[in-house]
Q: What sequence folds into this?
């Protein structure tokens, strides 16, 4: 009990000291825009010249955007066991860019500002004096160590966020971090940001005073011609019905942090982007369900909208078969003694007991949401 209490106290103190990070956004350089297309789901994408996408970031002025080797080469080093659970992979809208270009989502709703992943990945927001007015999480985190990434299927859900003034969102993310820097990937429902109520693939990075969601500014180097941050994921899982997952993997590879979704290498965060030890390795991995609401508004459902009860396998959201890339550069299941849970509103959301096996770590999480008053212990 003493060790657990010390671990939680350390977790809260460390992240409370991480400063506020404002979202950075930039317009796409029109000179690099080759063509704009619209998917069957109504999303608009610009086909951007691959070599021009990272040149605007000061830290990347000498970065040449070297191609990452094929997925088969990537998997031969870190392995890719795939999901063995009774689930199916979600699909993403089909995009096919001309040679030498990559897709960048442009159909965001109005303002570029968002309170989504860029703030969520800064854990200070969960524990400051106004935390219970804005954001909540239900998470499993590793104790500090040396990590070079993770792999994990995430069950995909599309809960009804209900009514309430924005910002209002719900999602599931996995964060890799070190000091004031971090990268994250998962899914999010954010009507103010995307202009719809669908579930989207979402990524973010943060580095000491600068942050970015998806590819709203230079930093993440898009590689895939067919899969891009911001795409709609479909179909979502259904309670007592078919379960769908998105398989996410972030690994330190050839010096950079590479993102793989399903069978596709989507792109990477160059190590030059980070001014901390994150350029070399991470010291923590966190799996979390997250929700946000405007001050005074009720909080929306998290995950499937159901808590991790006895029927969790058919009705609750899940992180499953989660493994970390340890100091030996091998994918391993985290030891139960090396993880702990954190829930900011226990009356509203829960984390089930994590279970570890050779296949990886697994736990259920979620909740129906609650009024602002209920979220305060």
A:
């Amino acid at each position: 009990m003493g060790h657990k209490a010390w671990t939680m106290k350390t977790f809260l103190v460390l992240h409370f000291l991480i400063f506020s990070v404002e979202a950075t956004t930039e317009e796409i350089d029109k000179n690099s825009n080759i063509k704009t297309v619209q998917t069957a789901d109504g999303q608009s994408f610009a086909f951007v010249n691959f070599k021009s996408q990272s040149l605007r970031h000061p830290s990347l002025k000498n970065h040449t955007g070297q191609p990452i080797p094929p997925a088969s080469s990537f998997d031969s080093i870190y392995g890719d066991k795939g999901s063995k659970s009774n689930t199916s992979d979600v699909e993403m809208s089909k995009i096919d860019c001309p040679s030498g270009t990559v897709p960048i989502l442009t159909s965001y709703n109005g303002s570029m500002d968002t309170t989504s992943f860029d703030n969520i990945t800064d854990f200070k927001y969960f524990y400051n004096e106004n935390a219970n007015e804005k954001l909540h999480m239900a998470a499993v985190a590793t104790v500090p160590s040396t990590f070079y990434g993770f792999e994990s299927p995430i069950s995909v859900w599309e809960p009804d966020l209900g009514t309430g003034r924005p910002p209002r969102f719900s999602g599931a993310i996995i964060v890799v971090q070190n000091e004031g820097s971090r990268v994250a990937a998962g899914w999010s429902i954010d009507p103010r940001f995307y202009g719809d109520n669908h579930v989207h693939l979402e990524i973010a990075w943060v580095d000491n005073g600068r942050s970015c969601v998806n590819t709203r500014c230079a930093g993440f180097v898009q590689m895939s011609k067919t899969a891009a941050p911001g795409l709609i994921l479909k179909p979502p899982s259904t309670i007592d019905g078919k379960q769908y997952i998105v398989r996410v993997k972030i690994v330190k590879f050839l010096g950079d942090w590479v993102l793989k979704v399903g069978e596709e290498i989507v792109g990477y965060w160059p190590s030059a982007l980070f001014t901390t030890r994150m350029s070399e390795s991470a010291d923590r991995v966190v799996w979390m369900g997250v929700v946000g609401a405007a001050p005074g508004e009720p909080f929306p459902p998290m995950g499937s909208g159901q808590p991790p009860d006895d029927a969790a396998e058919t009705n609750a959201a899940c992180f499953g078969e989660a493994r970390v890339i340890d100091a030996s550069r091998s994918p391993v299941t985290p030891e139960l003694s090396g993880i702990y849970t954190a829930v900011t509103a226990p009356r509203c959301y829960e984390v089930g007991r994590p279970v570890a096996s050779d296949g990886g770590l697994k736990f259920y999480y979620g909740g129906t949401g609650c009024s602002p008053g209920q979220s305060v212990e």
